[in-house]
Amino acid sequence: MSKETFGFGQVTDVSIIRAASKGSSQAQHVIFERYKTAVLRTLIGMCHDRELARDLAQEVFIQAFRKLHQLKNPQRLGAWLKQLTVRTALSYFRSQTPPPEPLDDNIATLPSWSDQVDWLIQLRDINTLIKQLTEAERYSVWLYLGEGYSHEEIAQLTGEAAATVRKRYQRALAKLQAHITQSQEQL
Amino acid sequence: MTNNERHLRQQWQQFVAQEAEQVSLEFDPHIANSAGASMPRFHPLWLSAAAVVLGVGIVWWLTDVSNGLAPQQESLLLADAEPPAVPMLLASNYTVDALERRLQQAYLHGATESELTQLWAQYRALTQ
Questions:
Q1: How far is CA A80 from the centre of its chain?
Q2: In the CATH hierarchy, which fold is given to the domain comprising A106-186?
Q3: Per-domain residue ranges of chain A
Q4: What's the predicted TM-score (pTM) here?
Q5: What CATH number is given for A14-95 in this structure?
Q6: How far apart (Å, rounded) are the C-alpha atoms in residues A151 and B26?
Q7: pLDDT digits (tens, 9 = 90+) for B43-90
Q8: ipTM (interface pTM)
Q9: Of residues A40, A123, A142, nearest to B23 (C-beta)
Q10: Which residues of chain B does A44 touch, with a Cβ-Cβ cutoff of 8 Å?
Q11: Distance (Å, rounded) from C-alpha A151 to C-alpha B78?
Q12: Cβ neighbours of residue B100 under 8 Å, at least 6 residues apart?
């Protein structure tokens, strides 16, 4: 992980982690309260669905307390939890039937987002904009921009080639730009 | 990272933060329970020792019961030949084990039909 976002970077006392790994409900409660916002934000970014994010967050903490004894370095609890959160969401996405995703064909027809300057400054409705993305596009962009993962790290998490992840990211941004341009033309 | 990417990140993170504030996520003790169910547990040694003691106790008890039901040696029977001096109303006499012994001795010593009927009635009252 190249960058830490606020929330997962918090430090938790080793004794609390040990107690939680031994099943102490109070210690688990402390960890839950400390990281729940970070877990929720990551999941909302990836899912764009509050209810789904809440369900997955519960699953993340169940998995976390179940596997906490496997954590070798307690100082890495936040990073470990972040990775568990991302993996839980990706696992959920994999369990759903994904729609066929075009990769290379359409990207040539979209405008080159990087050539134009500050088109996103005119953005008014981020919610509608995010909805333009497919599931894979959305979590790829969020993991890169919102969570600070590199394309290589995302590829490792999704089990894809880094080039595929990078192309998907570029296509996603081009799609967003096309949407904004189209919206402005309609005004 | 371009300005567009920075701007998108900023907008998206703000949106996500606002969305997260609207989600109520409370700690559910069920989380701890379900997590603990599959967590490997390390049992203290004294529990193993207690299990051994319990096992020995059960074997001893079973042996004792089977001995009580099995035909006994003549010398032992003679020693018990006298009628029981302990009053029947004592609680200790109303255990299944004691009644089984008394029934066995009653048959061996030719107890009357009414004595046997009375003992069997007590036995059934305890075992039903």
A1: 14
A2: Arc Repressor Mutant, subunit A (1.10.10)
A3: 14-95, 106-186
A4: 0.65
A5: 1.10.1740.10
A6: 34
A7: 445 556 666 777 777 777 777 666 655 554 444 444 444 554 545 555
A8: 0.84
A9: A40
A10: 16, 19-20, 23
A11: 94
A12: B68, B69, B123
